[in-house]
């Protein structure tokens, strides 16, 4: 999940850095940065509990601009 999102976002927004929980950061000096937790609620995920999701945020100058959480097993965004 992290590799796929990193690849997509890097291609679509090359001036924005990326920080992922699993693979660290690229372009950490960038003013704007995507921050991703590919499996937020890992313990729930490993126990097949549906309260887990994907969390993505855009941060600019250290302040959050937008955040999105998808709970795929519940069909919520």
Question: Please, could you describe this protein's structure?
Answer:
The protein is of the alpha+beta class and about 80 residues long. Helix content is about 20%, strand content about 40%. It is built from 2 helices and 5 strands, in the order H-E-E-E-H-E-E. It has a 5-stranded mixed beta sheet, with helices on one face. Strand 1 (about 15-20) and strand 2 form a beta hairpin. The longest helix has 11 residues, at about 1-10. It is elongated. It starts with a helix and ends in a 7-residue tail after the last strand. The model has no long low-confidence stretch (mean pLDDT about 90).
Give the topology, please:
Elements: H1 2-12, E1 17-20, E2 24-26, E3 32-40, H2 42-46, E4 53-60, E5 63-70
Parallel strand pairs: 1-3
Antiparallel strand pairs: 1-2, 3-4, 4-5
